[in-house]
Amino acid sequence: KQVVVATGNAGKVREIADALAGLGWVLMPLGPLPLPEETGATYEDNAALKACAAAVASGRLALADDSGLEVEALGGQPGVYSARFGNRPNDQERNLFLLEKLRGHTNRRAKFVSVVILASPEGQLETYRGELRGQILEGPRGENGFGYDPLFLPDGQTRTLAEMTVAEKRAISHRGQALAALRAAHQGRMSA
Ligand code: ITT
Fold this sequence. Notes:
- The chain is α/β, with parallel strands linked by helices.
- It has one domain (2-186): Maf protein, CATH 3.90.950.
- 30% of the residues lie in helices and 23% in strands.
- The chain has a six-stranded mixed β-sheet with strand order 2-1-3-4-5-6.
- α4 (166-172) crosses α5 (174-186).
- The chain is globular and about 50 Å long.
- The site of inosine 5'-triphosphate (ITT) has 22 residues, from β3.
């Protein structure tokens, strides 16, 4: 079965390919298809926008992830705005912005949320969600992963997400959980 991976984020592509390896799906790049503007108020809305747009444009099943980091001391921000936090242009600048916002805060608790949606061109949706709780460190550690990974120490771990391999991150992460649920729902299905 051919499934378009509807994301422009190379880190997500890597994690999705890793989590779905061996399922027998052929994962296809989004290519020149444009992703819609993320106008939704929730991860679910934005994931559906991306997955449906890619499914309709390609005529195939399409998979999208919408995700974000919710920081307690910031009232749950940046949340669905995580990719554009502080209007900073890249991961490193956004990490610096987050550290600035949290300066002086003793409550460093945060959680990652991922919503993964599989959409058909006919408009059928399957929705899967995962969460990962942890805390924001005072400075970055590690070179792997993407986004806020170097600042995020998951509960019960001694290494940040950026100090883990893709497989180690998959075993605990928000996206790993959502994709494991999708995988479980499809493993052993004959088709569709
Ligand atoms: P697509 O919409 O093209 O998939 P995006 O990066 O814009 O890519 P989102 O709108 O879902 O995706 O933004 C999610 C942001 O949340 C992402 O850019 C990171 O800054 C952050 N984020 C989500 N999951 C993360 C993870 O596993 N590790 C680190 N940061 C993550």
